[in-house]
Amino acid sequence: MDIPSDLLNQTRDGHAVLLLGAGASLGSQTKDGYPCLSTLELGRLLSDTLLGGYLRDGQLSQIAEYAISETDLGRVQSLIRDTFQSLLPTHAHKLLPKFVWHGLATTNYDMLIEQAYDEIEDRLQQPRPMIEDRDRIDERLLCIYHS
User: What's the burial of 46, exposed, middle or buried (CB within 10 Å: 0-12/13-18/19+)?
Assistant: First the structure.
Protein backbone atom coordinates (compact mmCIF):
# COMPACT_ATOMS: atom_id res chain seq x y z
CA MET A 1 0.00 0.00 0.00
CA ASP A 2 1.38 3.38 -0.99
CA ILE A 3 0.85 5.96 1.75
CA PRO A 4 1.31 9.58 0.69
CA SER A 5 4.45 11.09 2.20
CA ASP A 6 2.51 14.05 3.62
CA LEU A 7 0.24 11.66 5.54
CA LEU A 8 3.29 9.84 6.90
CA ASN A 9 4.81 13.17 7.96
CA GLN A 10 1.59 14.37 9.60
CA THR A 11 1.27 11.06 11.48
CA ARG A 12 4.91 11.12 12.59
CA ASP A 13 4.47 14.69 13.86
CA GLY A 14 1.29 13.88 15.81
CA HIS A 15 -1.05 15.88 13.58
CA ALA A 16 -3.16 13.00 12.23
CA VAL A 17 -6.65 12.11 13.36
CA LEU A 18 -7.39 8.39 13.21
CA LEU A 19 -10.99 7.37 12.46
CA LEU A 20 -11.87 3.71 13.00
CA GLY A 21 -15.10 1.96 12.06
CA ALA A 22 -16.40 -1.55 12.58
CA GLY A 23 -13.64 -3.07 10.44
CA ALA A 24 -11.10 -2.15 13.12
CA SER A 25 -12.45 -4.94 15.33
CA LEU A 26 -12.25 -7.66 12.70
CA GLY A 27 -9.54 -10.15 13.49
CA SER A 28 -9.97 -9.79 17.22
CA GLN A 29 -11.07 -12.83 19.17
CA THR A 30 -11.58 -14.12 22.67
CA LYS A 31 -8.89 -16.08 24.49
CA ASP A 32 -10.89 -19.19 23.53
CA GLY A 33 -10.57 -18.30 19.84
CA TYR A 34 -14.11 -17.05 19.21
CA PRO A 35 -13.98 -14.30 16.56
CA CYS A 36 -15.49 -10.84 16.80
CA LEU A 37 -19.01 -10.73 15.43
CA SER A 38 -19.59 -8.95 12.16
CA THR A 39 -22.24 -6.24 11.91
CA LEU A 40 -24.62 -8.76 10.31
CA GLU A 41 -23.97 -11.32 13.06
CA LEU A 42 -24.50 -8.75 15.82
CA GLY A 43 -27.78 -7.69 14.25
CA ARG A 44 -28.91 -11.32 14.10
CA LEU A 45 -27.90 -11.86 17.74
CA LEU A 46 -29.93 -8.84 18.87
CA SER A 47 -32.87 -9.90 16.71
CA ASP A 48 -32.85 -13.53 17.84
CA THR A 49 -32.29 -12.75 21.52
CA LEU A 50 -34.55 -9.74 21.98
CA LEU A 51 -36.99 -9.70 19.08
CA GLY A 52 -37.73 -13.37 18.39
CA GLY A 53 -35.98 -13.12 15.02
CA TYR A 54 -37.91 -10.05 13.82
CA LEU A 55 -35.86 -7.92 11.36
CA ARG A 56 -33.13 -10.59 11.50
CA ASP A 57 -31.53 -9.53 8.24
CA GLY A 58 -32.16 -5.80 8.63
CA GLN A 59 -29.62 -3.09 9.29
CA LEU A 60 -27.97 -3.20 12.70
CA SER A 61 -29.06 0.35 13.55
CA GLN A 62 -32.69 -0.49 12.78
CA ILE A 63 -32.57 -3.74 14.76
CA ALA A 64 -30.92 -2.02 17.73
CA GLU A 65 -33.45 0.83 17.77
CA TYR A 66 -36.35 -1.59 17.59
CA ALA A 67 -34.83 -3.80 20.30
CA ILE A 68 -34.48 -0.75 22.57
CA SER A 69 -38.10 0.24 22.00
CA GLU A 70 -39.38 -3.32 22.55
CA THR A 71 -37.23 -4.07 25.61
CA ASP A 72 -35.10 -1.28 27.06
CA LEU A 73 -31.75 0.38 26.51
CA GLY A 74 -30.17 -1.43 29.46
CA ARG A 75 -30.94 -4.90 28.09
CA VAL A 76 -29.56 -4.03 24.67
CA GLN A 77 -26.42 -2.49 26.17
CA SER A 78 -25.91 -5.48 28.47
CA LEU A 79 -26.17 -7.94 25.58
CA ILE A 80 -23.69 -5.92 23.52
CA ARG A 81 -21.31 -5.54 26.48
CA ASP A 82 -21.46 -9.27 27.24
CA THR A 83 -20.82 -10.05 23.58
CA PHE A 84 -17.76 -7.85 23.17
CA GLN A 85 -16.12 -7.62 26.61
CA SER A 86 -14.05 -10.78 26.25
CA LEU A 87 -12.45 -9.77 22.92
CA LEU A 88 -8.71 -9.24 22.99
CA PRO A 89 -6.84 -6.50 21.10
CA THR A 90 -4.99 -7.57 17.96
CA HIS A 91 -1.38 -6.73 17.14
CA ALA A 92 -2.69 -3.78 15.11
CA HIS A 93 -4.61 -2.42 18.12
CA LYS A 94 -1.43 -2.63 20.17
CA LEU A 95 0.45 -0.53 17.61
CA LEU A 96 -1.89 2.46 18.08
CA PRO A 97 -0.38 3.54 21.44
CA LYS A 98 3.03 3.77 19.73
CA PHE A 99 1.87 6.90 17.88
CA VAL A 100 0.81 10.34 19.04
CA TRP A 101 -2.61 11.08 17.58
CA HIS A 102 -4.11 14.54 17.32
CA GLY A 103 -7.41 12.71 17.69
CA LEU A 104 -8.68 9.15 17.62
CA ALA A 105 -12.33 8.29 17.06
CA THR A 106 -14.12 4.98 16.76
CA THR A 107 -17.71 3.96 16.25
CA ASN A 108 -17.24 0.52 17.77
CA TYR A 109 -19.13 -1.13 20.60
CA ASP A 110 -16.00 -2.89 21.85
CA MET A 111 -13.28 -1.56 24.11
CA LEU A 112 -10.33 -2.95 22.13
CA ILE A 113 -8.55 0.38 21.69
CA GLU A 114 -8.86 1.23 25.38
CA GLN A 115 -7.60 -2.26 26.28
CA ALA A 116 -4.64 -1.90 23.92
CA TYR A 117 -3.66 1.40 25.54
CA ASP A 118 -3.96 -0.18 29.00
CA GLU A 119 -1.72 -3.11 27.97
CA ILE A 120 1.07 -1.05 26.41
CA GLU A 121 3.29 0.41 29.11
CA ASP A 122 5.36 2.61 26.81
CA ARG A 123 2.34 4.28 25.18
CA LEU A 124 2.95 7.80 23.96
CA GLN A 125 -0.32 9.24 25.24
CA GLN A 126 -3.30 8.29 27.37
CA PRO A 127 -6.70 8.29 25.68
CA ARG A 128 -9.65 10.06 27.28
CA PRO A 129 -12.71 8.13 26.15
CA MET A 130 -15.84 10.04 25.28
CA ILE A 131 -18.79 7.68 25.17
CA GLU A 132 -21.95 9.74 25.06
CA ASP A 133 -23.10 12.60 22.87
CA ARG A 134 -23.20 14.82 25.95
CA ASP A 135 -19.48 14.26 26.64
CA ARG A 136 -18.01 17.66 25.82
CA ILE A 137 -14.79 17.56 23.83
CA ASP A 138 -13.79 21.09 24.83
CA GLU A 139 -14.02 20.19 28.53
CA ARG A 140 -12.10 16.94 28.00
CA LEU A 141 -9.32 18.80 26.22
CA LEU A 142 -9.06 21.24 29.12
CA CYS A 143 -8.31 18.25 31.38
CA ILE A 144 -5.43 17.27 29.10
CA TYR A 145 -3.79 20.69 29.19
CA HIS A 146 -4.38 21.36 32.88
CA SER A 147 -3.47 18.00 34.37
Answer: buried
CB distance 105 to 18 below 8 Å: yes
Structural domain spans, the chain? 1-25+91-108+122-147
Closest CA to 104 of 119, 114, 92: 114
Can you give the length of the chain in residues?
147
Condensed to tens digits (0 to 9), the pLDDT of residues 68-90 reads: 999 999 999 999 999 999 999 99
Compute the distance between CA of residue 141 and CA of residue 133 in angstroms, rounded to an integer. Answer: 15
Query: Residue type at 1?
Result: M
How does residue 140 score in pLDDT terms, banded at 50, 70 and 90? low
